[in-house]
Write a structure and sequence with these properties.
- There is one protein chain.
- The protein is mainly alpha-helical.
- The protein has a single domain, classed as Heme Oxygenase, Chain A.
- About 70% of the residues lie in helices and about 0% in strands.
- The radius of gyration is 17 Å and the shape is globular.
- It comes from Deinococcus antarcticus.
């Protein structure tokens, strides 16, 4: 089934932007078993930066939620996300690539990572809760789809153990919270043409930043 995220709320067809991410050269290389160790290490370091910010983003979503029902829906994702601090930590993947805890501690965001990170805070500052939720949810939804594509070849073509790449299949646990719960919340709160336009522009900008993030990772030698 072709990938989509809340297409009924968008004023533009963003299928091309979604496909540009899902078929990005980085992920094509991963699936073909051709991604370099440098690219995989850069992905681990840069995405770990995003994962660390994810906790703050989730807290901001709850803090700015418009009502108690929205807060309850958003909190449902906290428990499945806790796994990424333990068995699902991206640092297990990094360790398999030779990265150390010091490497992660000293990592700085490269341009694509910085742009994607700031995009979420910009959505909140510029548009408030609705574009902020749309931005975070769109990013997580398409990354869940990427994890479905990347998980099997990382085991089968690179020889990583299931424990080393647990980060990827464990994103299955977020599907209900993002693709069902948060999508339904967006539909409930998106009431006017102006709301639809704000959501469309937030999702569109997020996809552009996602692509830039993977451009930066792919550029690793």
């Amino acid at each position: 089934m072709p990938y989509s995220f809340v297409p009924d709320l968008l004023n533009e067809d963003l299928t091309a932007q979604q496909q540009a991410i899902l078929t990005h050269p980085l992920w094509q290389a991963v699936q073909a078993g051709e991604a370099t160790p440098a690219q995989l290490r850069r992905f681990a370091l840069q995405d770990d930066w995003l994962v660390r910010h994810s906790k703050q983003l989730e807290a901001l979503l709850v803090a700015h939620a418009p009502d108690e029902d929205a807060r309850r829906e958003l909190l449902k994702k906290w428990e499945p996300k806790a796994v990424f601090s333990g068995e699902g930590s991206l640092r297990h993947f990094g360790a398999a690539l030779g990265l150390t805890e010091q490497d992660f501690a000293e990592a700085e965001p490269l341009p694509g990572c910085a742009a994607l990170t700031m995009n979420f805070y910009y959505a909140l500052e510029r548009g408030g809760f609705l574009p902020f939720l749309a931005s975070v949810s769109a990013s997580e939804s398409i990354f869940i789809a990427l994890c479905d594509l990347a998980g099997p070849p990382l085991r089968e073509k690179y020889g990583f153990t299931p424990a080393q790449v647990a980060f990827f299949p464990l994103h299955d646990g977020l599907k209900a919270g993002v693709n069902t719960g948060e999508a339904a919340l967006l539909r409930r709160l998106c009431r006017t043409p102006e709301d639809r336009e704000r959501v469309t522009q937030a999702v569109k900008l997020t996809y552009e930043c996602e692509r830039l993030f993977y451009d930066t990772v792919y550029a690793a030698p």
